[in-house]
Specification:
The protein is α/β, with parallel strands linked by helices.
């Protein structure tokens, strides 16, 4: 049996044939090839209708510890759950396929093996003028409005829930993603809500450089509306589950 890797990087991918090769090349060249820890990279193909999975398979001869999982198209959340629960790393990171956050930022985001302690969950945040956030004004404003609405509905005290780069300890990843149910983009909000309301995990965050990709798979208006709708129902569902659990276990 292979030794458990220190870090697992999970990349959900849907029709990413035009950029998956370059994203993986940058990931290895700018971070993994000089990393002082073991790793695995898991690309989870979310039912792509292009050559995404074939391209990743072809790269396995040149790039170490790379594998691809293929599932029917169900959404980013479903793909991330499958990747997180299939991973073996002590730390497990979800990463967007476009790597709008440059891979060298992982040196700051991923806990060092020499670090005496680290939060259970570490999230990257984009919404800060002091850092190199390259974005369009409309997307910046929409992100602000979206995050304000999410905080109001969920009680999360997090400024940027939707940055696609988050690191989880093995314990947090297995627990949270085995309980998560969202198949779409609202998966980020769901796992953070579960973590905050369980009060079993510590959370850290840091601001990162970010360059918006005009070929982003997120359609600004329709996807934002759908995510807000999903978050609204999610928040109500989690509160309902908590009330039922409290009624069934009044002594706890």
């Amino acid at each position: 049996m292979k030794k458990k890797p220190y870090l697992s990087i999970i990349i959900p991918a849907y029709n990413e044939s035009t950029r998956i090769y370059e994203s993986l090349r940058r990931l290895y060249n700018d971070y993994l090839d000089t990393a002082l820890h073991t790793y695995e990279v898991i690309v989870v193909d979310d039912g792509s209708t292009d050559e995404t999975a074939d391209l990743v398979e072809a790269m396995r001869d040149s790039y170490q510890n790379l594998r691809v999982l293929i599932y029917p198209h169900k959404g980013k959340g479903y793909a991330i759950r499958q990747g997180m629960l299939s991973a073996r790393g002590r730390w497990r990171m979800m990463a967007d396929a476009d790597f709008a956050m440059p891979p060298f930022e992982l040196k700051r985001l991923v806990p060092s093996p020499k670090q005496p302690s680290a939060p259970d969950i570490i999230i990257a945040e984009r919404e800060q003028f002091d850092f190199d956030v390259v974005n369009t004004p409309i997307r910046w404003l929409a992100g602000r409005v979206f995050n304000l609405a999410v905080r109001q509905m969920t009680g999360l005290n997090i400024r940027d829930t939707q940055c696609g780069f988050k690191v989880f300890s093995e314990r947090a990843a297995v627990d949270l993603f085995s309980r998560a149910t969202m198949d779409g983009f609202a998966i980020d909000v769901e796992v953070l809500m579960l973590a905050q309301r369980s009060r079993n995990y510590t959370l850290g965050s840091l601001y990162v450089h970010w360059v918006h990709d005009p070929d982003s798979r997120v359609k600004l208006i329709p996807d934002s509306i759908k995510m807000l709708r999903d978050v609204y129902h999610l928040a109500g569902d989690i509160r309902l589950r908590e009330r039922r659990a409290a009624a069934e276990n009044p002594a706890q």
